[in-house]
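hiii so um. not sure if this is the right channel but i have a protein structure encoded as tokens and i wanna go backwards to a sequence. like what aa goes where. can anyone help
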């Protein structure tokens, strides 16, 4: 009985430690960028680089340490962890899936007359900016968030719950990270990094489910990282380029304002969930038949 209670405490403590690491460091990273900009007049690129270095520099080693605690607690250490470089080729699985879904969305929208593509801009107008943003996005968002949320937190939850419930709970924790950081920023007098409304919460909830399912059928966290990164770049360089102050890859007009934004999100997020569920179901049927 005592041993069981100690295991429960360790499990809860590990879950909370992983969640708190991502949440606290995300707030700290945003704060460090704001401080650098206000005190030293840092440029936007320097500010973003500082945020990324703080985020990955703290989250990655702490989460990897917590993973060792998880292995000791469960007594199970995989030969090839889901974050191993040996699984890194699945990074391109995530990249290609996001590109395919995004491209399909624009093809469908264009063929139906929902958007009118006016001009494709030459790579020399946006390629360097895209590469710079890729660096920032990997360090600040894709790598630390996937390692902490779709990696550690899911594996801790999976130790106690079935896969479907672990996916749901992990996604709720993902939503709570963003919510907690925004609320704490407002509490200390900083401008929240995101606007908390129902539509935004629905978007990040679907995003979290898709990313987690992608990790499940590929068996690699790198697939989630690749999809996460590519999704961000498509949103920033195609769908909403002016919001981020970067040159677009294409210029187009919506038949209804905001339609391309909603359709692109639906294609990439809902599309990734559907594709993942189909593949997971097919793999399950194959295992049953063998």
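sure thing!! here u go:
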């Amino acid at each position: 009985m005592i041993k069981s209670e100690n295991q429960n405490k360790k499990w809860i403590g590990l879950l909370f430690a992983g969640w708190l690491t991502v949440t606290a460091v995300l707030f700290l990273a945003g704060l460090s960028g704001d401080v650098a900009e206000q005190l030293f007049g840092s440029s936007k690129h320097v500010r973003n680089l500082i945020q990324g270095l703080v985020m990955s520099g703290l989250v990655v080693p702490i989460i990897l340490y917590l993973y060792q605690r998880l292995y000791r607690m469960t007594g199970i250490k995989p030969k090839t962890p889901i974050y191993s470089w040996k699984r890194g080729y699945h990074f391109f699985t995530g990249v290609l899936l996001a590109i395919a879904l995004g491209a399909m969305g624009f093809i469908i929208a264009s063929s139906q007359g929902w958007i009118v593509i006016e001009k494709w801009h030459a790579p020399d107008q946006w390629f360097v900016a895209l590469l710079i943003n890729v660096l920032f996005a990997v360090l600040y968002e894709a790598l630390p968030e996937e390692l902490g949320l779709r990696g550690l937190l899911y594996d801790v939850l999976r130790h106690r719950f079935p896969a479907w419930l672990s996916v749901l709970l992990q996604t709720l924790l993902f939503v709570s990270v963003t919510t907690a950081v925004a609320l704490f920023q407002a509490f200390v007098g900083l401008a929240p990094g995101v606007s908390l409304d129902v539509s935004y919460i629905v978007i990040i909830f679907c995003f979290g489910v898709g990313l987690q399912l992608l990790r499940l059928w590929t068996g690699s966290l790198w697939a989630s990282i690749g999809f996460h990164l590519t999704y961000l770049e498509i949103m920033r360089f195609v769908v909403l380029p002016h919001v981020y102050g970067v040159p677009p890859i294409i210029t187009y007009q919506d038949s209804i304002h905001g339609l391309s934004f909603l359709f692109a999100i639906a294609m990439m997020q809902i599309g990734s969930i559907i594709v993942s569920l189909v593949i997971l179901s097919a793999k399950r049927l194959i295992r049953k038949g063998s």
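oh and Residues 2-289 form one domain.
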